[in-house]
Amino acid sequence: MTGLVYLIGAGPGDSKLITVKGKECIERADVIVYDYLADAHLLEWARPDAELIYAGKQCKDHTMHQWEINELLVKKGKEGKIVARLKGGDPLVFGRGGEEAMALREAGVPFEFVPGVTSPIAAPAYAGIPVTQRAMATSFAVVTGHEDPTKAVSGIHWEGLATAVDTLCFVMGVGNLPTIAEKLMAHGRPANTPVALVRWGTKPIQEVLVSTLEHVVEDVEKAQLKAPAIIVVGDVVNLREQLQWFDNKPLFGKTIVVTRARSQASKFRDMLMNQGANVIQAAAIKTEPVELFDEDKRLLHGVDRYSCVVFTSAEGVRYFFDALYGEGKDARSLGYAKVCAIGSATAKALTNYGITPDIIPVDYKAESVVDALKQHVKPRHTVLLIQPKKAREVIPRELRHLDIDVDILRLYETQQDTSQQEALVDALQHGHVDYITFTSSSTVTNTLELLGEDALSLLEHTKIACIGPITAATAMSAGLKVDIISPVYTTEGLVDTIVKDCAN
């Protein structure tokens, strides 16, 4: 049985620049073979059972040689596997996709090209540099900068390129920059021609250096700018002053650690990245369903007898409906019970199941929930509270003081997530982390446990940002100096607060 190999352009760095078809191929694949330049976020779309194989190649550092990659793709294809071969940029723009396709064709393995957004266009665009511009640049060329300068005869037509093409984009050319500048000037390109280098284009760690042909080598050495970078030569470089947009974002240049559970972190991460932040996902917690006993099932089957059902988190909503469906029930089982949601995120989670909450407290503290419920639930009424295995007792205690019957359905528990421990420690030890965010008390305690006895010293030069006073109090009681407390107890509120802090 023969499989199928997709040769996919993974885009220039920003994972959201992958094509819809590229994403669909990743989701479908049995095997994913990915490159050094393919964004790691793309792997989040892989099936849980997909085999992930790193085949990255950097200058003088090859995890796998090209012939080995060719053999791997043929082998997996002949095993009947659906293979997603992720290549940075476009597979046919200096991506060696043609070579891999030829190897597959010779072996009789079906393949498809899935074009991608190519970095010679995308990286300049993210730097505010269009490769063509009316009345300024009507042509552009993409040129390899990786040619061996000791070759007797160059494969690059320097004489034609230097003067016949308006905009030149060199890929893999940082190491050969002196030769590139020398050849262009020697063949008629003016020494004062604008040049830009865009390093890690389209990513939040993007760097841009603007110079001229005669000074660019000196300026790059002075800035110690390293590969990977796109080199752009031409008058269009001057447009950056007017069209710069990506590195103007309020959080650009800031590195922010997100510690909330991966299942909840994507929206928060995206909001930070949309503001320009470099986000490190270092989940300190994860949630798991707990075993349902007969009493739990009895509460589920009798959910319609309650005056009000209270959801304290979006995760609680998900686990509640998973359990309800598992018992052969659906949202109709709630009957005429009023529904209370602590916070906008919890309310939104309920709307996914066709339910609009009747009660949303003014703020999202447990104490405020009790005040809001008092307007709708009277003495001798019954309330069902959906909570994790470990939770504060404020709501049930205060409601019982009001002579309201409370049953608690504990459907999930929060556990420590150690999968990103190494990445978190490494970022704090060797990188510069501007902010670490905590969205609950459990993210605080578990992060500190992951960091061990050096936790306070590792976080000494990082700003601590918390959602609400309860999370902040947990952090302060552990000896942390809390710099930011979001007055709105949502991830949106925390992002806004961080943006304001950066502006000060």
UniProtKB/TrEMBL annotation:
The record's listing under PROSITE patterns reads: SUMT_1 (PS00839)
Source organism superkingdom: Bacteria
Which residue numbers delimit the Tetrapyrrole biosynthesis uroporphyrinogen III synthase domain?
A: 271-495
Q: InterPro entries given for it?
A: 4pyrrol_Mease, 4pyrrol_Methylase_sf, 4pyrrol_syn_uPrphyn_synt_sf, 4pyrrol_synth_uPrphyn_synth, 4pyrrole_Mease_sub1, 4pyrrole_Mease_sub2, CobA/CysG_C, Siro_Cobalamin_biosynth
Q: Start and end of every Tetrapyrrole methylase domain?
A: 5-215
A single Gene Ontology biological process assigned to it is:
siroheme biosynthetic process
Alphabetized, the UniProt keywords read: Methyltransferase, Porphyrin biosynthesis, S-adenosyl-L-methionine, Transferase
Identify one Pfam family in the record.
TP_methylase
Entry's Gene Ontology molecular function annotations: uroporphyrin-III C-methyltransferase activity; uroporphyrinogen-III synthase activity
Residue stretches in coiled coil: none
- UniProt-listed Enzyme Commission number(s): 2.1.1.107
What NCBIfam families does this protein map onto? cobA_cysG_Cterm (TIGR01469), PRK06136.1 (NF004790)
UniProt protein name: uroporphyrinogen-III C-methyltransferase
Which organism was this protein described from? Veillonella tobetsuensis
Q: Read off the lineage from the record.
A: Bacteria, Bacillati, Bacillota, Negativicutes, Veillonellales
Coding gene? hemD
